[in-house]
Automatic annotation (TrEMBL):
Domain Myb-like: start-end pairs: 9-62, 63-113
A Pfam family matched in the record: Myb_DNA-binding
Stretch list, region Disordered: 124-156
Species of the source: Lupinus angustifolius
Annotated Gene Ontology cellular component terms: nucleus
Keywords: DNA-binding, Nucleus, Repeat, Transcription, Transcription regulation
A GO MF label: DNA binding
Comp. bias regions, Basic and acidic residues: 138-148
Major location (coarse): nucleus
Name of this chain's protein: Uncharacterized protein
Localization per record: Nucleus
Record-annotated HTH myb-type domain positions: 9-62, 63-117
Amino acid sequence: MGRAPCCDKSNVKKGPWSPEEDSKLKFYIEKHGTGSNWLTLPQKIGLKRCGKSCRLRWLNYLRPNLRHGGFSEEEDNIICSLYISIGSRWSVIAAQLPGRTDNDIKNYWNTRLKKKLLWKHRKEQQQALSNGGNNRAVKKESNRESRSDSLSFVPENSTHHEQLYNWQQMPMLPLQPLPYTNQSPSFNNEDSIKKFLRRFYDDNYHPTLDGLLNHHEFSNGIYKEQVHMVSSSACISNSNINNNEVQYSQTGQYGFDLVQGQGSTFTSSIEEVVSTNTNNYPQRLDGLEFFYGEDIINNKIMGSSSTSCSQSSNWGETNTQIYHHHPLVSSNYQVQGLIQETHNNVFLQKFSYREMQ
DNA sequence: AATGCTCGCAACCGCGGGCAA
DNA sequence: ATTGCCCGCGGTTGCGAGCAT
């Protein structure tokens, strides 16, 4: 006994949507909403489509504020780090990337991002071989990947934004040299991909957190300031609130210290840090919205999921807290701030610190 | 110019979970 | 507690555009 079909399959249209169908669906939903029943919706509109097909079309294509293509470097990093943390839960990953659909991210991962990582891995292998190896097969494959990469990510008429796709221009994490192996990494399953990805992030992978530290660096010649984001599956929901992450983060919580150093006074909030860096290194702020939140970059409050973080602000609401003195940081570093957020059941930690040079 | 191949993306499909009766 | 229905997710497929031969 199979499941009863959701609609009369012989009486519904399949395949690409016509502009007329799109406008019918869009017009109706914008005016009346979905009526919380997708299956009956096509009949109301007069569309010969399955309700599920309507839902998919609306969510993935027609609904407002969607972005297609043009994934940024930061989005790449978020996708990679979340993939490591939580696997192929595309809807959860999509929830962290405004305007992106789970379908888009899934396609992007399967068709480009995975290959991009593989290509980089192979390039490193080839470099390791450069002293002695002259493997024609590797060379041929490498040429093919290079060509493919240049066409896919850095077209000749690309804009600055598009050029962010060029691996060589990406501010990569410090990489461990990869030992040469005759075998390319196999991407047969999720675990092998995660394992492979971690090779790129070994320096920044934190076993206790089971998370990835996304890494951005500012340097003014005196101090090095590093900003990390941790996404962790270990604290995936509030029910795990007692695990190590939260417990140790609670030492010295709430607020920031003023930190003195080499004639400079560090500011007391990330908001001010952003402001400082905007003045000194405005070019490095581009694309950091994912870390600070659009509201901070734009100096305005846009929503509840990401909040500004001044000391006296309304930070305590629901899932967001500020901490300092993160135990990961040694005496050579001074923590600037730590933010913990929960977005759609994904736990995120963001912290910044400065390295005393 | 014609044909075959590859790639990217939109859409489909089946299944599991949640919820109400 | 059980059943049926719907929603949403993730894996898969099919098609069209662009590229290689």
